[in-house]
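The methods section describes the discrete structure representation at length, but only in general terms. Since the whole study asks how a given chain folds, the encoding of that fold should be made plain. An entry of this sort, consisting of the sequence and the corresponding backbone structure tokens, reads as follows:

. . .
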Amino acid sequence: TLPMSIVIQAIYENNVNTTIAHNRIYKGSYSINLYADNAFVYNNTVNNSAVGIMTRGSNISVINNSVSGLSQKTGIMIFGEKGSNDVAYGNNITFKDVSQALVVGDYAEAHDNIINVADYGVGISVTGDEPYVHDNKVKVSYDDAIQFLSNNAVIADNILITNARGISIKTANLDRYYNNTISGNKITSDSYGIYLKGLVYNTTISANVIETNATEGIYKDITDELSDSNYDNMINGVIYDATALIIDDSNFYEYFDEN
């Protein structure tokens, strides 16, 4: 395959009920480029393509694909439509260097993917409205495990390992982002576990477990911290803003008598 070619492309009007499966593709600018409704992309093996798999449309499933390479732009990109079921799951994405291994856009869901980036590159880039990213395993080296610029995003129950930041948002110019949830993630990081900077509002950060070498597990430099809701996060073994009742020697007899 030529380095600048699109190998499999289905982007025409009325492209419905398409299945792309069991292909082995080497190089190409896009290995699979799909704009469709009610489509399946599964069990494909893609190596050293600039963009491995890109899908946009409604009710698209990207399942059990293997995407790998040395120095590429993106492994898998998925963009959905409101009210549809667009999902990437069970994919194995492995790179030496990459801009972002997985991109999850508007109304799309990504879960149970395994992502490894040996050197430089973001594990998961989350964009647009209402993306749902959960139960993924991400290991990266020099960049953030998950970066997001979204509204109404849910980032939950992921296992993240990085020498940089675990989950981060940093706004540019006057762009504002609202109503995101970061919950139940297990983060091991050299830098901040969770990092918020800029015009970010109404973020819920709860029940995350963070092990970090940074001075703060959760770092915020935002305009309205009071709009956030933070509770039950464990940072280096200490629970902050606990909602559960903790009984110890200091308050035992407030709840129990000697009998």
Observations:
- The two ends are 79 Å apart (CA to CA).
- The mean pLDDT is 91.
- The CA atoms of residues 89 and 111 lie 5 Å apart.
